[in-house]
Write a structure and sequence with these properties.
A five-stranded antiparallel β-sheet has the order 6-7-15-11-12. It has a four-stranded mixed β-sheet with strand order 1-2-5-3, covered by helices on one side. Strands 17-18-19 form a three-stranded antiparallel β-sheet. It has 293 residues and is α+β, with helices and mostly antiparallel strands. The chain has helices spanning 28-40, 89-98, 114-119, 180-197, 217-223, 252-270; strands at residues 2-6, 18-23, 45-48, 54-55, 61-67, 74-76, 80-84, 101-102, 123-124, 127-128, 133-140, 145-149, 155-156, 159-160, 166-174, 176-177, 230-231, 234-236, 244-246, 279-280. The radius of gyration is 19 Å and the shape is globular. The chain starts with a strand and ends in a 13-residue tail after the last strand. The protein folds into three domains: 2-70, 2-Layer Sandwich (Uridine Diphospho-n-acetylenolpyruvylglucosamine Reductase, domain 2); 74-195, Uridine Diphospho-n-acetylenolpyruvylglucosamine Reductase, domain 3; 207-276, Uridine Diphospho-n-acetylenolpyruvylglucosamine Reductase, domain 1, CATH 3.90.78.
């Protein structure tokens, strides 16, 4: 447990003020116990993963911030795996591929944890997490833990119906038999494309906006003239317009101002309302993080 822990160390954007208390649970039971005690004491509590899709506030966060990165339990089955929420998605993709199992080729270069990947239905190259999920174990705001089968919740493009209602603690995934060398080659190609087309060398949180139906958010933002423009330390990447990078100690306020300016301009020029993929955690909220739409 750490007091006044810098939130920017928990975010791939490297943005955020001090958290009053940060705790890394060592097990699902540990997490659940801390969560329930915080709720009973009416202490603000929230849960995050690897911070690859989140924007923390400049003023920091009160209460307890639970980080799932120590929840890395894994159990292999017959073309299935049961894995805890803090396990790294990219690592799991590599391990699945090494076994000659197909289904996570798209995920080799995606940062973040399994829990976060399912919660936002992370995807790339036309594939996403929805195709692999058999079941999930979830934590709800009242502290209840529920196991849900795949038909008890919904996925859509960068969307899971559990989002803003519960958190993923553990999941069971299923894969298909494949040709090991072909799978590993496909992952290497996907990773090469990602490195070439995305600003991985600068602090960022991945794609900021969802692609609107039939179009690309990056294309719209670039066409509107935003590529390379900045507010404070936050800048629209010159490599990919759907990425906002932290160039010089950016503040959360800089990123939010840039997001709103882009949304307004694209709406005025093209009549399209861009929706964000990233989560913005607001000061003082309890339980579920608020989605920045």
């Amino acid at each position: 447990m750490e007091r006044n822990y810098p939130l920017h160390l928990l975010s791939t954007w490297r943005i955020g003020g001090p958290a009053e208390t940060v705790y890394w649970p060592e097990s699902v039971e540990d997490l659940s116990n801390v969560w329930m005690r915080a709720q009973e004491a009416e202490i603000p509590v929230r849960l995050i993963g690897r911070g690859s899709n989140v924007l923390f506030p400049d003023e920091g966060l009160p209460g307890i911030t639970l980080v799932t990165t120590s929840l890395r339990g894994i159990e292999w089955g017959d073309y299935t795996v049961r894995v805890e929420a803090g396990y790294t998605l990219a690592r799991l993709a590599q391990e699945v591929g090494e076994r000659g199992w197909s289904g996570l080729e798209f995920a080799r270069g995606i940062p973040g944890s399994i829990g976060g990947a399912i919660m936002m239905n992370a995807g790339a190259h036309g594939y996403d997490m929805a195709s692999c999920v058999l079941s999930v174990s979830t934590l709800w705001a009242d502290g209840t833990i529920k196991k849900l089968e795949r038909d008890e919740f919904e996925f859509d493009y960068r969307f899971c119906s559990l989002r803003s209602h519960a958190w993923i603690l553990e999941t069971q995934l299923i894969f298909r038999p494949g040709e090991r060398e072909q799978i590993l080659r496909s992952m290497k190609e996907n990773l090469t494309k990602r490195t070439a087309n995305q600003p991985l060398e600068e602090p960022n949180a991945g794609s900021v906006f969802r692609n609107p139906p039939g179009d690309s958010a990056g294309r719209l933002i670039e066409a509107a003239g935003w590529k390379g423009k900045s507010i404070g330390g936050a800048k629209v990447s010159e490599k990919h317009a759907n990425f906002i990078v932290n160039t010089a100690q950016a503040k959360s306020a800089d990123v939010l101002a840039l997001i709103e300016s882009i949304k307004l301009d694209v709406q005025l020029k093209y009549g399209i309302t861009l929706q964000t993929e990233v989560e913005s955690i607001l000061t003082g909220n309890r339980g579920v993080t608020k989605k920045e739409e």
